[in-house]
Design the sequence.
């Protein structure tokens, strides 16, 4: 029916798409793992990372010329600082006071922050789609790894590699470090954790800062990959990443990556088989099916009692 | 325990609140009445199009074109001895929002509307305008359905997608000599409508459409679609949609090594599209109206536009300008704002516009549409001489 070449290409597309979702899904799942709340503003922090990077690159190239690697590297750092600052501010302003409130309160607050940030960027930064400066992405997009008849761009390899690296890093951090013990203790019981001397507020703030910094890297990679920055980019990718996190078992780090890969592959294969107009249908049908059979997601262990 | 003193204080503040609320209501109603009285000395015209989101630029420039024409008329003393007031509203490119915008223009007493841009907005809004007996001239919606509904007050000052699709389909088959094409559209009235017309034309000429798919308007990752296009063996590609997605899609195709002709319609005819794909992009073809940049009639408008708005005039500002002029000329000749009489004038005579002499047929469409194929050359769009 379809040639094996096309099928292979579609599988690579699906994995790349899954890796993009995974980068964002990790942020969702990490905050959920610690706080038991869905940080709906995570997608917007990701989008702010995109804009911060591109505007920083613009400023740097105006200041000292077009040095691709230097400007891009500094741009990513600026994006991480910006996103981390927004992530921290979100936690400090919108969530910390609501930590002991009913679970719907921080959730609503998160949706509010998400809308606020989206339209803040829309009104103040750009109402239009902004193209990612090709001069900077060409380095990664025009060079390919050739395996037989298949081309894989360096950017895709970078996205995929980064996803794995971050997943392993987070897994190690949570399970094998002193900080990870503090994180897990905070996740289990905040009061008890504070009684044994764990600075709960700092641990939670750290979770947001780390998650937001990672979202910024994801934002830069995705805007290079899609060639475009737009104020509602976080909404769509965020929704899919959230779905992926649920699919894999929210709160579970490898689960988020697994869920994202399944989602990406489902969408790509749907595009091949039925056409892209069906991709949302198959995606959410699959989510329903998985949740019917495994209500806690594929790798979910903890009872999803909140939200 | 409820503190009785506190409760009394709450009672007091509640009654105070009621007092201020009623005061506010009275003041607002009063202001509205005063407002009504004051505005009877002007003629209101609605300018409705997408002004935000990814199609913002093309919609905004269209309305700015209309605004220049209105300013010119106002400088000459207005129409029917009254100044013309424009009400500019943003439909965000969304059908539901467009209906709200239409209703609010009807409620505000607009006698005519120049808009909208997206066919998906123009068509649902047209029903509201028709019920409110308001003349509607769209400078940019090309879906045939708009004028096929039989509304007496609906006019279109650009071509239709069946004309545009025929040109694009013929160009792909006859000029580029292709036999197999892939088509992707954005699932809107405009995108899918145009894509279907291209498919019809291309197949009627004996060609094969190897892929015909839709994609959501908010999707930015086209890599899977590009792989499918590649696998389908298409020799050419048609995009039925707007420039916000068209640009990144074209870039993605080139990055994934597909250099087949990229053909699209007026929705990609914008500077942002060129900025995204790059000024040196090869094998890109767009269907659009004829080139007016070299016409002497266009020069005063282009100069005025640049002076007033300090940016490029966009694809549809000339059409916005022509639409406003045709409307005001018709009102001037009818010597009334009565929609039946104005519509009768619009359908009975020809109008001198920047794009030449135009006439409306009984449906409200132009009697002649002048679609030609354009390409990108040296960072600018240029009309091609070899049209089918």
Sequence:
């Amino acid at each position: 029916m379809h040639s094996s070449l096309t099928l292979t290409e579609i599988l690579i597309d699906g994995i790349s798409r899954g890796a993009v979702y995974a980068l964002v899904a990790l942020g969702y799942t990490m905050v959920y793992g610690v706080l038991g709340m869905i940080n709906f503003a995570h997608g917007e922090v990701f989008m702010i990372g995109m804009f911060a990077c591109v505007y920083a690159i613009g400023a740097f190239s105006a200041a000292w010329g077009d040095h691709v690697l230097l400007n891009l590297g500094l741009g990513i750092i600026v994006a991480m600082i910006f996103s981390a600052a927004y992530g921290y501010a979100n936690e400090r302003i919108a969530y910390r006071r609501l930590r002991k409130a009913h679970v719907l309160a921080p959730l609503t607050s998160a949706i509010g922050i998400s809308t606020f940030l989206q339209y803040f960027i829309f009104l103040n930064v750009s109402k239009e789609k902004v193209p990612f400066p090709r001069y900077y992405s060409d380095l990664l997009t025009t060079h390919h790894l050739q395996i037989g008849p298949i081309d894989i761009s360096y950017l895709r390899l970078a996205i995929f590699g980064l996803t794995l690296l971050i997943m392993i890093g987070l897994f190690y951090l949570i399970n094998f470090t002193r900080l990870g013990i503090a994180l897990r203790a905070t996740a289990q019981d905040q009061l008890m954790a504070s009684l044994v001397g764990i600075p709960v507020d700092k641990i939670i703030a750290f979770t947001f800062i780390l998650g937001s910094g990672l979202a910024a890297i994801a934002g830069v990679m995705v805007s290079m990959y899609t060639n475009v920055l737009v104020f509602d980019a976080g909404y769509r990718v965020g929704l899919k990443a959230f779905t992926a996190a649920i699919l894999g078992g929210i709160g579970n780090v490898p689960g988020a990556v697994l869920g994202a890969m399944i989602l990406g592959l489902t969408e790509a294969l749907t595009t091949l088989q039925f056409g892209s107009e069906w991709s949302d249908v198959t995606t959410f049908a699959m989510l329903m099916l998985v949740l019917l059979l495994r209500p806690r997601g594929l790798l979910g262990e903890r009872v999803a009692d909140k939200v | 325990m409820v503190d009785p003193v506190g409760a009394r204080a709450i009672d007091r503040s509640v009654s105070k609140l009621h007092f201020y609320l009623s005061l506010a209501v009275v003041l607002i109603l009063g202001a509205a009445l005063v407002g009504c009285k004051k505005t009877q000395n002007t003629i209101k015209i609605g300018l409705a199009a997408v002004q935000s989101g990814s199609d913002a630029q093309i919609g905004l420039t269209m309305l700015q074109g209309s605004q220049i024409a209105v300013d010119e008329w106002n400088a000459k003393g207005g129409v029917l001895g009254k100044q013309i007031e424009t009400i500019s509203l943003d439909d965000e490119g969304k059908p539901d929002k467009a209906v709200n915008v239409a209703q609010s223009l009807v409620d505000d007493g607009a006698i005519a509307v120049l808009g909208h841009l997206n066919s998906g907005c123009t068509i649902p809004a047209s029903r509201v305008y028709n019920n409110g007996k308001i003349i509607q001239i769209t400078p940019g919606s090309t879906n045939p359905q708009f004028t096929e509904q039989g509304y007496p007050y609906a006019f279109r000052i650009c071509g239709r997608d069946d004309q545009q699709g025929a040109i694009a389909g013929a160009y792909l088959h006859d000029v580029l000599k292709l036999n197999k094409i892939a088509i992707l559209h954005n699932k809107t009235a405009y995108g899918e409508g145009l894509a279907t017309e291209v498919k019809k034309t291309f197949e009627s000429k004996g060609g094969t459409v190897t892929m015909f798919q839709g994609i959501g308007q908010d999707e930015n990752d086209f890599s899977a679609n590009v792989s499918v296009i590649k696998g389908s063996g298409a020799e050419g590609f048609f995009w039925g949609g707007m420039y916000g997605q068209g640009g990144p899609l074209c870039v993605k195709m080139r990055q994934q090594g597909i250099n087949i002709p990229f053909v699209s319609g007026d929705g990609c005819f914008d500077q942002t599209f060129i900025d995204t794909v790059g000024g040196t992009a090869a094998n890109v073809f767009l269907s659009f109206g004829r080139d007016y940049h070299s016409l002497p009639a266009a020069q005063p408008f282009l100069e005025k536009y640049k002076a007033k708005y300090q940016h490029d005039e966009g694809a549809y500002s000339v059409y916005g300008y022509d639409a406003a002029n045709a409307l005001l000329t018709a009102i001037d000749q009818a010597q009334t704002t009565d929609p039946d009489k104005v519509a009768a004038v619009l359908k009975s005579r020809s109008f001198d516009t920047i794009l030449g002499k135009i006439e409306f047929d009984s449906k409200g469409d132009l009697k002649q549409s002048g679609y030609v194929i354009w390409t990108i050359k040296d960072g600018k769009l240029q009309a091609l001489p070899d049209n089918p």
Notes: The domain at 4-293 of chain A is CATH 1.10.3470 (ABC transporter involved in vitamin B12 uptake, BtuC). DSSP finds twelve helices and four strands in chain A.
